[in-house]
Amino acid sequence: MANDDAPFCPPVAADAFAIKDCALLTIATGKKATTLKELQNHLSTIDPDSIYLHVWGSQLESQFEVREYNNHFASWARRGLHDDTLAERLAMVAPNEYADLEELRQEFLEVIAERLEEKEYLHWVLATEPFEFIRSTIVVFDTAKRVEQPEELIDLIPHLSTSSIFYHFIDARRRLPINQDDFRYWLTCWGDRYAELNHHLAAIDPYFNGLTTIRQQLANAFERYCPRKSP
C-alpha cells in the first residue's frame, strides 16, 4: 500500500535531478501608467504573469548592473515619480513571503493605496517616464545533465548558469505545490538524511540576494552540509 505521507519526488528522469536552464520572454501588454493612480488601476487587473515579471524579472537582468531596487514598481516610483518613500515601501515587499501572485498583487495595491491617501497630489501628478506593463513566458531548456546523488551537486552548482539557478531556486516556487525550490524538493526523497542541508537551503533569501550570490550560498551549503562520499 502506498504511503500517503511519503515525500513526493519531483518528476525527473529515473529519479535523477534534471538540470534545466531557462529564459524569460517578454510580451507587451499595451498598458502603461503615467500616474500612480493609473498604476493602481492597471495593477488591479493585469495578468499575474506581468506581476511575476516585474517582481522577479530583474533577477535575470544583467548581472553587471547595480540594481537600485529589486522590483520594477519600486524602481519606477523612484525614477518616474521621484517618490523615495513609496519606492522604499514597494521595495520591501518580499514576494517569497506570499502564497501566490494574487496575494502579492493585493499587498502592492495596499502599499499604493496607503501612499495615495497620504499624498493627494499623487492621484494626478504625471511621472517623468511611464510605467509600461509587460508580461512574460518562461522558456525551459534541458541541459541533458543528470544528477543521481546529492553529493554530485557539490561540484556542479558553482558552474551552473545564473538562469539555471533562477529556474531551480526561484521559478520552482510557483511550479511546486509547497513553495519550495527544486533542490529541497528533490532532497526530501532521501527522508531525513539531508535534513540539515535542507534547513540551510531554506535560509537562503531568494529575493534580496542576486543570482550570483544565491549560487555561491547554495555552493557553500552543499559543500558544508552534504559530505562527499568516501572513495
Structure report:
The structure is a single chain. This protein is of the alpha+beta class. The chain has 2 domains: 114 residues, no CATH class; 79 residues, no CATH class. The chain contains 10 helices and 2 strands. A two-stranded antiparallel sheet has the order 1-2. Helix 1 packs antiparallel against helix 5 and helix 9 runs antiparallel to helix 10. The protein is elongated, with a radius of gyration of 20 Å.
Based on the model shown, name its key terms:
2 domains; two-stranded antiparallel sheet; single chain; alpha+beta; 2 strands; 231 residues; elongated
In total, how many domains does the architecture comprise? 2
Output the helix-strand order. Answer: EHHHHHEHHHHH
Distance between the terminal alpha carbons, to the nearest Å? 37 Å
The helix/strand class is: alpha+beta
Shape: elongated
Mean pLDDT: 89
Instruction: Kindly estimate the percentage of residues that lie in beta strands according to DSSP.
Output: 5-15%
What gyration radius follows from the Cα positions, in whole Å?
20 Å
Quantity of strands, as a count: 2
